[in-house]
Amino acid sequence: MRYFETRKPRIEIIPMIDIMLFLLVFFVMIALNMIPSTGLVGRLPASSTSQALPPVKVLIEIHQDGGLVVDQKPASLAALREILKSSPDRDKTVVTIAGAGAATLQQLTEVMDACRQSGITQIGLATRNVE
Question: How many domains does the chain have?
């Protein structure tokens, strides 16, 4: 009468582990997409009228020594022009310039000129909010 023998029920753990791993990967990917582009240099200049900008397409950082970083990769002004000219839709490309507090106005003007020469019209300046 093996047919009527009752088996002890058991909980399958392997499928539960698979689901938990999937959830962990899902939440990590969502959290990474929620973190804005980081890596801004030093202390940004302050402004009492700063506003939130739309999501950044291209982030240009100006260091105190005049060095440029475009999307977390070092670049020169000529390389910046080439990167921006290769952008598929320059009319809708949003460029944000984040300069160190000690960056000069000349360095900022050179970067803005390079953006305009490449056909970029939407340029924003990153600042920190003074409260």
Answer: 2
